[in-house]
Amino acid sequence: MTTPEWLKIARELHSMSQVGLEHAANGYDTERYTRLRELAAEIVSKQSTLSEEEVQKSFAMQPGYITPKVDVRAAIIHDGKILLVKEESDGRWSLPGGWADVGDTPSQAIIREVREESGFDVRVRNVVGVYDANRVPNEEWMPFYHAYKLLFLCEILGGEARSSHETPDVGFFALDQLPPLSLFRTNRGIIEDAFEQAKNASKGTVFE
Fold first, then answer.
1. I need a surface site. Which of 15, 46, 118, 149 has the fewest CB within 10 A?
2. What are the extents of the domains in the chain?
3. What is the DSSP secondary structure assignment for residue 136, as one 8-state letter?
4. What is the model's pTM?
5. 96 burial class (0-12, 13-18, 19+ CB within 10 angstroms)?
């Protein structure tokens, strides 16, 4: 999905303001870069259901130099079907995973996420792909943040399907019978990449 121009502009203004505020040499600099952040918040609020105050509060939670967030996802294929979890927030389905926590290695993060969201213990086999995961406009995820998505091919070691407070249902689905997807978490393209690599390990890692 193409990132809308307003979102690109808001992200750039936000990034410039944060770097400027981090290195402000005087009150004039602080005032100027604060104004840039206000303009970014105004753009987002006019294109979403968020108020400027809500956007500003979220911006303030990311001080310093702005870098992409990291989203880790697991592709677990069993008997020709892929594991998906139903998201409590929107009632749609995604690959298990979420934001990586500080202190975790990528593989540790995805093993934990799979266990928490689906009940299965897994081993990471390899990386399917590294994607530029610009968020589609959705107020839950604050779409003005840029993200990279790391997709891992995993295999089940044990455990059993179990829901959680964030994922009320768990299931395996064939590629031609996918349920409605939570597209800003998981799209059909990355699921197809996972099936391709599961069939052909020499396919190599997909990257953008």
1. 46
2. 5-60, 69-207
3. P
4. 0.77
5. buried
What does the longest C-alpha to C-alpha distance in the chain come to? 63
Rounded Cα–Cα distance for residues 11 and 143 (Å): 9
Residue matched to tokens 């294109």 = 47
For residue 170, what are the CA distances in angstroms to 53, 64, 73, 92? 37, 38, 15, 11
Q: CB within 8 A of 59, min separation 6: which ones?
A: 14, 17, 18, 37, 40, 41
pLDDT band, residue 81 (cuts 50/70/90): very high
Q: Give, rounded to a whole angstrom, the gap between the first and last alpha carbons of the chain.
A: 14
For the chain, count helices (H), then strands (E): 5, 8
- Give the separation between CA 111 and CA 115, rounded to whole angstroms: 6
Question: CB-hemisphere CA count at 13 Å for 40?
Answer: 28
Taking alpha carbons only, the member of 73, 71, 162, 86 closest to residue 118 is 162
In this structure, which topology does domain 69-207 adopt according to CATH? Nucleoside Triphosphate Pyrophosphohydrolase (3.90.79)
pLDDT at 144: 60
Q: Are 84 and 94 in contact (CB under 8 A)?
A: yes
Can you give the length of the chain in residues? 208
Residues 162-195: tens digit of each pLDDT: 999 999 999 999 999 999 999 889 999 999 999 9
Rounded to whole angstroms, what are the CA distances from 117 to 88, 92, 114, 159, 180?
A: 11, 14, 5, 12, 18
